[in-house]
Here is the input.
Amino acid sequence: MTEKGLRDVVAAQTRISDIDGERGRLWYVGYPIEDLAEHATFEEVVYLLHHGELPTPAQLDQLVGFLTRERGLSPFGTKIMPILAHTASPMSMLRTMVSGTSTYDPDGWDESPEAQYRKALRLIARVPTMIATYHRLRTGQEVIPPNPELSHAANFLWMLHGEEARPDDVRAMDVSFILYADHTMNASTFTARIIASTLADMFSAITGAIAALKGPLHGGANEESMKMLEEIGKPENASAYVAERLARKQKIFGFGHAVYRTMDPRATIFREFSRRVGEAHGDLRWYEISRAVEESTFEQKGLYPNVDFYAASVYHMLGIPTDLMTPIFALARMAGWTAHVREQYADNRVIRPDSEYVGPPERRWVPLEARA
Ligand SMILES: CC(C)(COP(=O)(O)OP(=O)(O)OC[C@H]1O[C@@H](n2cnc3c(N)ncnc32)[C@H](O)[C@@H]1OP(=O)(O)O)[C@@H](O)C(=O)NCCC(=O)NCCS
Here is the structure.
């Protein structure tokens, strides 16, 4: 039997994350997302996803030390970035850069589990530098080197904006990374696992994952949500805007989910940050428009917001250009993708589903000259 979109088909066993779509719950290795968003840092979550346990202080220090040392771009990256900054879209840049990074990885083609782990951490460490360098170059600004004193989130904002962000903005960014870090067998993670299952290398698997994330039905939805908020302009316009889109059979981006049948728990947390960041910046406009869209979409179509909807207003208030919102999703998901790739290598069988043939039955060959 064909299950279109493979809904409810279990494609792998995993110890990394779990969802209860009916109750709107999400856990990373058993820890509820709410607890992680309240207490953890992104770096701790990276450790958790890769090791299955929260780090001790010494383990965390070691991880942070490695990530901090590995933030610089490879020689290939440094050389090609000025070209990409003026020719490629942000997600195309990221896809190309991650693919190109394989050429200069110090572990080369070493496929041992230890080398795979180091490659994973280098990717996690470098993606913020790729995004920030790209943005500085394309806007004609001086490139800001990574600051080893700053956390993953604080350093990203520093490299992007050229000034240290305020602590509550850093925390909002850090929590957003945690919320985006993993999400079971979503399209991009599945892509990464399929590629890994052929025993292709980590960079190939992650390049494929970035390609899958790009589309507006997956990671691209946060950018599309922001464009909608801008088009709506004020809360009073939300109801008519939603009605018109639905009448034209267009998607309301940032709403609906393949697994959640209720509120996405990440959206609840992002919504609170949308309010908090708006208040801190003295501008609740984006939060209020978002609330109005949420109400109208529920009333008119019974759909709940997903992770991408409130991420848009949070990132906007943090000064993130709209077209960098999906690359930031990738930055954070790098933690989960790489953990899944390593999990796939550790207990592998090539992923090769079946298909149901619905074309014509066996036919006889017709020579070219006999075809009309
Ligand atoms: C996420 C998504 C791809 C899931 O797709 P799915 O599993 O096929 O969704 P469902 O089966 O629950 O859809 C049920 C119905 O609601 C509609 N629907 C789902 N999400 C919708 C949305 N955001 N806007 C309008 N209609 C939507 C579907 O078209 C379908 O309608 P139909 O029965 O008339 O054909 C889909 O909800 C979507 O496109 N959302 C917008 C993009 C987005 O935010 N993506 C990020 C996901 S984290």
User: Anything to note?
Assistant: The chain has a mean pLDDT of 96. The two ends are 37 Å apart (CA to CA). The chain has two domains: 17-166+181-214+323-346, 221-317. The CA atoms of residues 28 and 327 lie 22 Å apart.
